[in-house]
Amino acid sequence: MEKNQGMQGVATVFDPQQFDKQAEDKQNHLIVLKTGIANPVSYWAGFAWDRAGKITSADAWKKYVDAFADGLRSPIEVSFTPQ
Questions:
Q1: Which of 25, 33, 41, 82 has the greatest number of beta carbons closer than 10 A?
Q2: What is the dihedral of CA 62, 44, 48, 76, to 10 degrees?
Q3: Burial per residue of 13-33, b for 16 or more beta-carbon CB atoms within 10 angstroms, e otherwise
Q4: How far apart are CA 43 and CA 80, in angstroms?
Q5: 78: region left, alpha or beta (phi > 0 left; psi from -120 to 50 alpha)
Q6: Dihedral of alpha carbons 59, 63, 64, 66, sign
Q7: Mean pLDDT per 10-residue run, the chain (83 residues)?
Q8: How far apart are CA 50 and CA 63, in angstroms?
Q9: Which pTM does this prediction carry?
Q10: Nearby residues of 50 by Cβ (< 8 Å), 6 or more positions away
Q11: Cα–Cα distance measured from residue 19 to residue 34, given in angstroms and rounded to the nearest whole number
């Protein structure tokens, strides 16, 4: 981001058992996951900008991402029985 234009947060949520390695350089962060026909990969990526007004701190971003990840681990189940 340009100087004095706010802060941003970026997150990726994935199954930790699929983690292979992480690499980075001056401008990039790379997460490599184990995958294959019998092991499909599912991930979620998100972004926040403090000047948008909803998530205004690193702690708020971490709390939001943690709650999102918890929801993925415990999805709501809905059933319908016609009468």
A1: 33
A2: -70
A3: bbeeebeeeeeeeeeeeeeeb
A4: 28
A5: beta
A6: positive
A7: 78 90 92 87 89 91 93 86 88
A8: 14
A9: 0.69
A10: 6, 7, 8, 56, 57
A11: 6
Q: State both tokens at 45.
A: 């990526």
Residue 42: both structure tokens together: 């599912």
Q: How would you write the chain as a 3-class SS string?
A: CCCCCCCEEEEEEECHHHEEEEEECCCCEEEEECCECCECCCEEEEEEEHHHCCCCCHHHHHHHHHHHHHHHHCCCCCCCCCC
